[in-house]
Amino acid sequence: MDTPRTIQWIGGTDGFARLLDQTLLPEKLEFRDCRKIEDMWEAIKVLCVRGAPAIGCAAAMGVVLGMQTFNGKERGSYRDKLCEVGDYLRSSRPTAVNLAWAVDRVQRFLEPYLEKEPAQKLTQRLLDEALAIEEEDRQMCRAIGKFGAPLIGEGQGVLTHCNAGGLATADYGTALAVMFSAAEQGRTFRVFADETRPLLQGARLTTWELHHRGIDVTLICDNMAAQVMREGRINVVVTGADRIAANGDTANKIGTYGVAVLARAHNIPFYVAAPSSTFDLSMPTGDKIPIEQRDPREITHGLGRCIAPDGIKVYNPAFDVTPASLIAGIITEKGVIQPVTTEKVLAMLG
Ligand code: MRU
Q1: In which domain, by residue range, is 287 found?
Q2: What's the 305 CA to ligand 1 centre distance in angstroms?
Q3: Chain segment 100-150, per-residue pLDDT in tens
């Protein structure tokens, strides 16, 4: 079974975005409609829609929501409002560059038309571009699957962290695309999914997606990865990414760096799968990638009850940065970057 649509635009310029509410999975499969830009901001913030490419698509649709009520008589103020809407959406989550990339892209796309066309026409163009971003993401994910599939051999064990599947993209995923594609090519293999504390994207979402596609998946707690590697059950690690610097340093869900260190210690290749929209070539290294800090309650109350003393200090970074030196290759829609160096990244991304 395919993963249900993560994100969908319903109707024309006066329409709305329909999101699969990922906070409720796997218990409930429900959709949440975003009819105002504030709805979309909130949906991104609370991880109703999540995963770098998916929040890029969502943000582009959020721009349409922000502009669809614009009825100003002067053209100039369409531009002002567009800037305001973009800044607002960018403030929702800072780490995944796809979000800012998508907002920048729709804004840039509109630039030549801003002083020339009526608001309704401009908003139609925004919608067309948002839908183009979604469609391109779909295609990029398929291509990532195709390039990554040969990395998984018959009978092997694969470890992944967080969720980089169809739920995290327009469709099909990045890290999970590699697995879906290997399975479609007829190989059997076993996936170990880290649960991914504190919000359990691995337990709730990755196992759900793999299971629905008939792929053998075993859930482990994050702190079991070393033991599972030591037992010789893992041949390759594949994760997604939220932002990749020009030298290949990669921000991804908190815990990814630890998995990469473990993989190196056990001589297991560690791969990252991501589309070109996840690269931030303005950053030479990953040192300055902004790391989102989230609500302490995700840790103290994340399992449905209070699991720490009241008032205890909590540190909750949502992402970490894996140095390029620990990454065997980056699987993109254009091919696999290997070895991971600035020269190779620039050569692949042109
Ligand atoms: O906080 P999240 O759930 O949005 O974090 C998601 C991840 O870290 C994914 O691995 C990443 O965005 C890649 S999704 C294809």
Answers
A1: 146-349
A2: 25
A3: 999 999 999 999 999 899 999 999 999 999 999 999 999 999 999 999 999
> Quick one: 82 and 153 in the same domain?
no
- Are 203 and 108 part of one and the same domain? no
Q: Is residue 322 in contact with ligand 1, taking CB distance under 6 Å?
A: no
Q: Among 317, 331, 20, which Cα is nearest to 147's? A: 331
Name every residue whose Cβ is closer than 8 Å to that of residue 55 and which is 6 or more positions away in sequence: 44, 49, 92, 93, 96, 98, 99
What ligand 1 atom has the least distance to the C-alpha of 318?
1
Give a yes or no: residue 1 inside a domain: no
**Residue 275: C-alpha distances to residues 29, 139, 211 (Å):** 27, 10, 24
CATH code: domain of residue 75: 1.20.120.420
CB of 294 shorter than 6 A to ligand 1: no
What is the pLDDT, as a whole number, of residue 1?
A: 63
Of 71-75, 174-178, 317-321, the range with the lowest mean pLDDT is 71-75
User: Last residue of a domain, which of 114, 142, 170?
Assistant: 142
- The reply to whether ligand 1 has any atom less than 6 angstroms from the CB of 263 is no
What distance in Å separates the CA atoms of residue 315 and residue 141, rounded to the nearest whole number?
33
Q: Is the CB of 56 under 6 A from ligand 1?
A: no
Tell which one of 204, 243, 253 to mutate to probe ligand 1, the residue whose CB is within 8 A of the most ligand atoms: 253
76-90 vs 52-67: helix axis angle to the nearest 10? Answer: 150
Could you identify the atom of ligand 1 that is nearest to the CA of residue 173? 15
Read off the amino acid at residue 33.
D
Among 39, 137, 242, 249, the one annotated catalytic: 242
Distance 314 CA to ligand 1 centre (A): 22
Q: Is residue 46 part of a domain?
A: yes
β-strand partners of 34:
17
pTM of the entire predicted model: 0.97
128 given a catalytic annotation: no
